């Protein structure tokens, strides 16, 4: 079946059993779903990221690759981590030699736009004792620990984003660093200190997502962490806080944003981006689109929670775009956005 061409961004809707009998997409601008024939390369896969029309997938043999679900093009990424020798990595848990790059230790992977076999850069948050940053480039046969002066001192990284040739990363304390991996050695620049968030962060545990507009404005979306196994009120208005980085003479500061105007932010498991709703007819303005997944203990065993939601900043409430709950199994596909 050849689907009707609908405007992007598309939301990929995985099958509950992980086998991907069909490839179903939901076009967000016109709220129209369509189905492609089954994609064999997605069967039994774990998805750990998406960006610019590509998925990052991993199989049971721990092979990681980039896959374009529409063209079928695939780029194999290294399946091993390079040796490391740094104090912050627990060498009792991870021996300092060539080890497998395990999908269940990957937090998120983002990569440069328009990747090819001979030209790509990928960065991952990877769990050693904390979430460290690892990277690989075209021609490499391994993932390398990203080591600069700004990755020391027990920093743990919560989210990563690629924009305009740089990788922006945020620590659990709210520090933002931009990495340039285009040269022989990585370079890093401190964009915002953690102290810039001290007076803004409310009580509670928030998941930070970093995004950037087409003009280079940096945004931070703070989403209240919740337990999906418990009852939840989707109409809460304190769940989401949106911040914009403002540059001043002293130091950059985060300002609370109440209205995004004709812009919306797409954050979560995919590479976070902003879109202009003026250019996409039917796309909701002033909204936060969020894709997320969790697993939690349940009396029937481990459960996977996969959700795609939209937060309307004017109404101050969530709307559900996709929701699925099923028993945990080794390979599964979360919902993902394909801009």
List the helices and strands and how they pair.
Blueprint lengths: L9 E4 L9 E5 L4 E5 L9 E6 L2 E5 L5 E4 L6 E4 L2 E2 L17 E2 L5 E6 L9 E7 L3 E7 L6 E2 L11 E7 L2 E6 L4 E5 L6 E6 L13 E7 L5 E7 L15 E7 L6 E4 L6 E6 L4 E4 L10 E10 L6 E10 L4 E11 L8 E3 L1
Parallel strand pairs: 22-24
Antiparallel strand pairs: 1-2, 1-27, 2-3, 4-5, 5-6, 6-7, 8-9, 10-11, 11-12, 12-13, 14-15, 15-16, 16-17, 18-19, 19-20, 20-21, 22-23, 24-25, 25-26
Protein name: KIB1-4 beta-propeller domain-containing protein
Organism: Musa troglodytarum (fe'i banana)
Write up what this structure looks like.
- By secondary structure, the chain is an all-beta fold.
- The chain contains no helices and 27 strands.
- Residues 227-237 and 328-335 have low confidence and may be disordered.
- The protein is globular, with a radius of gyration of 19 Å.
